[in-house]
Write a structure and sequence with these properties.
4-stranded antiparallel beta sheet, globular, 5-stranded antiparallel beta sheet, mainly beta, 215 residues
Length: 215
């Protein structure tokens, strides 16, 4: 996909395939390196402005591997999650760790807020984060009580709590960021539910989860 800015300057930040890129000037275009259906990945990104820059490039497992979803702006900093990385763990193949939550300044300084342990705390966040009242909320594909994924909250100081562990009937393997509607979170799971092919669920910030629809 491409995003083009007209006369009015747009300020957005994109996170994809291991780099974070600020976009914010007229005549700027960012082209995704994700392939179209049936096409090979081109790996190309371009900009028609001298304002284009790579803000941060993930270098190794310690800084996170495979940034998932976008980033959330909060108090002048950017927050996101990686699907792998953190503390090396054989439970999360290929062993680079079970994922992280990170914060990065607008100057490009990155810090890891939390490293998932592949246990009840969850493993492999994939869909990105959602912010409500200064707290960040996300999902993990794995981990939790039955290793079917979790919904978690995390403070900007790095304190993580599991709000819900998926069991299968209520879905498992969530893969997209949740949506905030008046302080209540809505999300989907890739599998699970009554037919095993996914659910639409809602969950409060205190952890009360309900399946709205089984696909």
């Amino acid at each position: 996909t491409s995003v083009r800015c007209g006369a009015s300057v747009m300020r957005r930040v994109y996170s994809a395939l291991g780099i974070i890129i600020p976009v914010g000037s007229p005549r700027t275009a960012v082209t995704s390196s994700l392939p179209a259906a049936g096409q090979p990945a081109s790996g190309q990104s371009r900009a028609n402005s001298s304002n284009f820059q790579t803000l941060f490039a993930f270098k190794n497992g310690a800084t996170g591997v495979i940034p998932a979803g976008g980033v959330v702006s909060l108090n002048g900093a950017l927050y996101g999650a990686t699907n792998f990385g953190g503390t090396p763990n054989k439970d999360c193949s290929p062993g680079h760790g079970c994922g992280t939550v990170y914060v990065i300044s607008q100057a490009g300084k990155e810090s890891v807020l939390y490293k998932f342990k592949s246990g009840k705390d969850g493993a492999r966040p994939y869909g990105g984060l959602t912010e409500i009242d200064g707290t960040l909320y996300g999902t993990t594909q794995q981990g939790g009580k039955k290793n079917k994924g979790t919904v978690f909250s995390i403070t900007t100081s790095g304190t993580e709590s599991v709000l819900h562990s998926f069991s299968g009937k209520d879905g498992f393997d969530p893969r997209v960021a949740m949506t905030d509607v008046n302080g209540v979170l809505y999300g989907t799971t890739y599998y699970g539910g009554s037919a095993g092919v996914g659910t639409l669920f809602t969950i409060t910030t205190s952890g009360t989860e309900k399946v709205l629809h089984s696909f």
